[in-house]
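Weekly modeling sync, notes
Attendees: S.R. (lead), two postdocs, one rotation student

Agenda item 3: backlog of single-chain predictions. S.R. asked that every request posted to the team notebook include the full sequence so nobody has to chase files. The rotation student volunteered to paste the first one in as an example of the format we agreed on. Action items at the bottom.

Example entry:
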Amino acid sequence: MRDSANASTPRPTANIGVGRITPLVSIEAPGACGSHGSNGESRCGSADALARMPPQVWEKIKTHPCYSEDAHRYYARMHVAVAPACNIQCNYCNRKYDCSNESRPGVASQKLTPEQAVKKVIAVASRIPQLTVLGIAGPGDSLANPKATFDTFRLLNERAPDIKLCLSTNGLALPDFVDEICRYKIDHVTITINMVDPVVGEKIYPWIFWRNRRVTGIDAARILHERQMQGLEMLSERGVLTKINSVLIPGVNEEHLILVNQEVKRRGAFLHNIMPLICDPVHGTYFGIHGQRAPTAQELKAVQDACTGGTTLMRHCRQCRADAVGLLGEDRGGEFTLDRIETMEIEYLADSHREYMNRIEVERNVQLEARREALFLAPENDVENDIKVLVAVATTGGGRVNAHFGNVSEFQIFEVSGTQVLFVGHRRVDHYCQDGYGDDEELASLLCAINDCHAVLVAKVGACPRKELSRAGIEPIDQYAGENIERAALSWYTEYRGRIANGAVAHKNRGDAAIRQPP
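Predicted structure, as returned to the notebook:
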């Protein structure tokens, strides 16, 4: 991790300010993920974790694409934009409407009433049967708009009680609504926590709106911190699963997030999602306009890796819009605008929905057995001399290598060794193929996005990108099209280790390759 003159020194927090925060004590999380990678990091939400966590926790996360790394391959979520107002200002946020070309939190195409939102959910559920989760994530703050938020949940509980409910909040108003959250059976709450030291927070939050007045500076950060910690503790005590979102801002909080990870664990957080700052100047955010840079993919991974042993990390986040629809990594919101919904025949049948879920679970179990078989059949390696490599995978979902190199909008990245295939993140890219032709500029950007990887697994790849990948030291592998990702990755890895052993190739450490965040 780089040493920055502007980086804040992590400092522990305790009882500060108005004294409503209890001392730092250990609060047991309502469940533990229990599945661990080879580096000791807890791996959350895989079917392998079932035997290691309370059954009631598994039931909450097994079909939730954000809380389960495994579930995000199979199940869809949607957000409804019923909460336009916000009670704080973040230097990385600019809420916008009608921004169909922007894929980031805080943007939406249409503001909905609760009634419109529920109608949209039912329409989506009737057309996307793998939908399991409805969340309210803005475009402002869900709890700064409590009536619209809880009216939506109440109506949806009446119409489709089998759909899981989520909300996202900055936490300022959270302690005031914990009872409401529990009343409406909202089992998943995401809190954005970027600091546990108000000195750091002052650099991120210019103001908050608190008790009918605007508060600025370190006082604003102090109040926000206290309310976030209090709300997190209250939810943990009530058995609500909490996910903490943190935005990694180079020079501001990258080292401090390690402390954040430790402190939210002490207060019972279930997951910690460390996300890269989005700061394109065209978005109009303070950080974007004033030249704050985003972290590289390597910097993001370094901070995540440094949190090993703390709160379980979520590495599959896509930083969704406030009106996102579909699987993580895709957005089908344009299919479900209000005018289109008016012309749809909408019929949501809970029994049919459950039947579809059962079919998904059959496929999921097939994939799980394929993973276990691949690991079981992998040849034993000299653990002391084992090597770890990163592999990029082109996939459209379902846990398989099933996408064309030129058509992907992101690659999933896996760390592969002789005993593990661990998902470590994704890299967004622009399509290389445009109207049937390859774009050389996009290919260069794409290669930069994955140039710390030793191989890329694809269903198909053209001659030109195959040549350029090889020149960049990235093996293009297309012989495992349609295969389970873990099986394909281990098969390639075993063959790669064999070539090293017989001297056909020399292993190169690509971990220090200078890569940039793709546009």
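Discussion: group reviewed the output briefly. The first strand starts at residue 35 and ends at 36.
Action items: rotation student to repeat for the remaining queue; S.R. to check formatting next week.
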